[in-house]
Q: What sequence folds into this?
């Protein structure tokens, strides 16, 4: 036993010697990751202190769970959680339905229409690469009161009698965020479904055609069941990001007083409380920590469920 | 399979629907493009839909003549170029190290690295770290936090492992050092994957604004995206002041430009680089995207 340990220890040392060159290169990376990703974890201790930046770590006053108690009794906390979950669910539902629908329809463009399909795909992926700032600028143009194209179109088609102040309507804000997300990522998110569709056995389509199913019948009875497992796995994986309803669009478009109540997400709450108030660092850290921990638990759980379903071939 | 009449009608409906989607994707950008090339005083009258009425390059001249915007543009370009070069170089180097199946710390370092994709201390601890490293309000806060990306390393490593191992082996027998092998064998062989990663990193760096907002808010370090953010935020919310240079620019030009026309031109300047690299991006991203889901 001990000799084997010894020999494996010797073997290890021999390997280290032999791979000196690699180790010298690898060491700075280890230090880099340690400093930039692991060291900040130490800062989480702030969440349990009455943190004052002018004092050193040993001079801080420890307050236990006080910030968490304050967090859970803060009415604003429940408001931002409601907004976060609300927008997440809308984003998830709209995002899934549109991406799947888009993939199904675009998959129908075959034969002579293949070139058209490529063009549509290319254009539909593009918004994914635009920054949120640009997208928010575009959204505010399109929805503007004075000469926003949407208001003009709705008026022209007689769907509304007077212009809608989209950006000032609390009841519309979540949907504006949802549809902006659709605009930005529908094409991109459809890629994975299109890939899944290509792996469906073509014989199934022929069989369905012989059975008398039309185009939509085949879509519904062959294509959709064919990508069912992909859909379920992705749905579960994405549900893991439920607390990440977004930050940028809500922060940029939701800053006016009329929609502030429904626009602020947990990320904005952390930012505003952490940096916006004197002595807010500790409270902000606690709120951020709450989000990270819950997120991590949900994410791991969802990943586990997805992995289990795949392994057991249940989907 | 020949298409029946019914099939053709369905095709027609789908094509029509897809055209609507394409228009909805392109039109907002197109409209901004028109406004940016139209005379600002003319644009105020409204009714600009498909084509500029009164061509003018003045909006563009004006933003590049405005010192703060031009400076922000330069900062955006330099942070993007520097981050891209460094991130690709270092991610590739680490990928090369981890591609050695017999490397003693391979497992440990891989786990240590992959964990960084999942752990996140949050905004405030991050801020304090950067502050104690002296990065706040310096250009380096744009560069140092993104020197290596765990995901990029995995993508490149997968690629290296698909290369014939004999190439590296023979170089080792010849006594070449690891850095030498990386420079003269790995980099040339990995150019396709390195280019892909470079495009990813470049788009991310070019598009980011949050780090300016939190970690480098001083004007000299502002980026194009951050300036855009200030302008849009000021137009969305009463009480947030729009940057001074907007009013200055329209004053100096005797109202030849308006906040709206400047914003349109800035949007185009901030978007065109993305549109230029987009065809190259598109060539690779499908495989990377699908690979990432499977990983």
A:
């Amino acid at each position: 036993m001990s000799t084997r340990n010894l020999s494996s220890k010797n073997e290890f040392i021999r390997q280290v010697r032999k791979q000196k060159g690699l180790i010298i290169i690898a060491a700075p990376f280890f230090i880099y990751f340690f400093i930039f990703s692991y060291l900040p974890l130490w800062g989480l201790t702030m969440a349990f202190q009455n943190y004052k930046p002018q004092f050193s770590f040993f001079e801080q006053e420890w307050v236990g769970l006080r910030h968490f108690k304050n967090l859970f009794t803060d009415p604003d906390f429940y408001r931002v959680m409601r907004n976060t979950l609300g927008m997440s669910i809308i984003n998830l539902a709209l995002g899934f339905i549109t991406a799947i629908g888009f993939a199904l329809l675009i998959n129908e463009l075959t034969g002579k229409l293949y070139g058209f399909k490529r063009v549509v795909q290319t254009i539909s992926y593009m918004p994914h690469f635009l920054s949120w700032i640009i997208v928010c600028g575009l959204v505010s143009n399109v929805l503007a009161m004075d000469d926003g194209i949407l208001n003009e179109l709705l008026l022209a088609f007689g769907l509304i009698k007077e212009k809608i102040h989209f950006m000032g309507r609390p009841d519309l804000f979540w949907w504006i965020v949802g549809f902006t997300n659709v605009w930005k990522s529908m094409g991109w998110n459809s890629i994975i479904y299109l890939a899944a569709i290509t792996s469906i056995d073509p014989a199934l389509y022929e069989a369905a055609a012989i059975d008398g199913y039309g185009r939509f019948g085949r879509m519904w009875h062959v294509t959709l069941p064919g990508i069912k497992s992909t859909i379920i796995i992705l749905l579960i994986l994405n549900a893991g990001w439920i607390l990440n309803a977004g930050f940028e669009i809500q922060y940029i478009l939701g800053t006016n007083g009329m929609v502030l109540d429904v626009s602020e997400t947990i990320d904005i709450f952390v930012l505003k409380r952490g940096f916006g108030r004197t002595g807010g660092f500790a409270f902000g850290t606690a709120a951020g920590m709450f989000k990270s921990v819950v997120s991590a638990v949900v994410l791991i759980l969802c990943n586990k469920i997805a992995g289990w379903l795949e392994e057991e071939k249940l989907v | 399979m020949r298409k029946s009449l019914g099939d053709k009608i369905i095709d027609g409906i789908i094509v029509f629907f897809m055209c609507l989607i394409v228009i909805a994707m392109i039109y907002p950008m197109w409209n901004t493009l028109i406004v940016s090339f139209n005379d600002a005083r003319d644009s105020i009258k409204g009714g600009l839909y498909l084509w500029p009425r009164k061509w003018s390059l003045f909006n563009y001249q004006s933003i590049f003549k405005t010192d703060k915007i031009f400076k922000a543009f330069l900062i955006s370009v330099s942070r993007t170029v520097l981050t891209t070069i460094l991130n690709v170089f270092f991610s590739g180097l680490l990928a090369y190290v981890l591609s050695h199946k017999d490397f003693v710390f391979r497992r440990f370092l891989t786990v240590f690295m992959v964990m960084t994709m999942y752990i996140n201390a949050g905004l405030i601890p991050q801020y304090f770290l950067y502050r104690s490293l002296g990065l706040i309000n310096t250009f380096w806060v744009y560069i140092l936090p993104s020197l290596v990306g765990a995901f990029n390393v995995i993508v490149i490593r997968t690629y290296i492992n698909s290369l014939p191992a004999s190439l590296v082996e023979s170089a080792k027998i010849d006594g070449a050092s690891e850095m030498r092998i990386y420079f003269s064998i790995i980099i040339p062989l990995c150019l396709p994957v390195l280019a892909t990663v470079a495009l990813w990193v470049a788009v991310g760096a070019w598009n980011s604004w949050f780090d300016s907002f939190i970690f480098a808010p001083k004007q000299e370090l502002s980026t194009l995206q951050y300036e855009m953010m200030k302008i849009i935020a000021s137009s969305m919310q009463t009480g947030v002041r729009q940057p001074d240079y907007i009013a200055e620019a329209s004053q100096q030009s005797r109202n030849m430009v308006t906040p709206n026309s400047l914003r349109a031109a800035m949007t185009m300047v901030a978007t065109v680089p993305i549109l230029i690299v987009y065809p190259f991006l598109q060539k690779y991203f499908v495989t990377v995207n699908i690979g990432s889901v499977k990983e």
Remarks:
- The radius of gyration of chain B is 24 Å.
